[in-house]
Specification:
Number of helices: 3
Strand order of the largest sheet: 1-2
Order of helices and strands: EEEEEEHHH
CATH class: Mainly Alpha
Largest sheet: 2 strands, antiparallel
Shape: elongated
Distance between the termini: 29 Å
Number of strands: 6
Mean pLDDT: 77
Length: about 180
C-alpha cells in the first residue's frame, strides 16, 4: 500500500494523497485518483489480465485556488500567469500519464509508476521551493516558484514521452501520445 508523501518547503506545504492511503488532509499540491476501485476504496479490477486492486492514474492538483489574474505588469499578476501555465502543463501531464497507464503490463508496473509519479511530484515541488529561495522574503519568490513548476513539468513531459515510446515498441495497436 502506498502512503501519502508530505513535504514542506519555503513556499508552502504539499501533501500527496492517494485514495488508497486516504485523501489529502491539508491544502497544497497533491496527486489524487490513484486509489483502489472506482469511486472509492475496495474495488477489484484487471490490469492486462491480472486480477487485483484496480489502480487509477494519478492526477496532479495544485493549491492555487482561486487562480490569480494574469497581468505581466505586476508580480502578483505574473504569479497568476505562471499559475495558468502550470495548470495547463499539469493537464497535459495528466493526459500523458493516463495514456502510459494503459500500456503498463501488470500491477507491479502500475504500482511502480504511481510511486514514480508521486516521488517526481515531491521532487518538483522541493526543487522549485529551493530555486525560489533565492528570492526569499521578496515578492518575486512565488513568481519564480510557479515558473519553475512549469519548467519542471515540461521536462517531465519529455521524460514521459520517452517512456511511452519504450512501452509502445512492438505493440500492434498503440494509443496516441497526447
Amino acid at each position: 500500500m502506498l502512503k501519502p508523501w508530505t513535504t514542506t518547503g519555503a513556499v508552502g506545504c504539499a501533501v500527496f494523497g492517494l485514495l488508497m492511503a486516504g485523501p489529502a488532509t491539508a491544502g497544497g499540491v497533491g496527486v489524487v485518483g490513484a486509489g483502489v476501485g472506482g469511486a472509492g476504496v475496495g474495488g477489484v479490477g484487471v490490469v492486462h489480465g491480472q486480477v487485483g486492486p484496480a489502480l487509477r492514474p494519478p492526477v496532479i492538483t495544485e493549491a492555487f485556488k482561486p487562480v490569480l489574474a494574469c497581468n505581466e505588469n505586476t508580480t502578483i499578476g505574473q504569479e497568476g500567469c505562471g499559475e495558468r501555465q502550470v495548470l495547463a502543463a499539469d493537464k497535459r501531464l495528466d493526459g500523458d500519464v493516463s495514456v502510459i497507464f494503459t500500456l503498463l503490463r501488470d500491477n507491479a508496473a502500475v504500482r511502480s509508476f504511481v510511486t514514480a509519479e508521486t516521488t517526481w511530484l515531491t521532487y518538483r515541488n522541493e526543487d522549485c521551493a529551493s530555486q525560489s529561495d533565492v528570492y526569499q522574503g521578496g515578492s518575486e519568490q512565488p513568481v519564480a516558484y510557479v515558473y519553475c513548476l512549469a519548467t519542471d513539468d515540461a521536462s517531465r513531459r519529455q521524460d514521459l514521452k520517452g517512456f511511452f515510446e519504450a512501452l509502445a515498441q512492438g505493440l500492434a495497436k498503440v494509443p496516441k501520445f497526447p
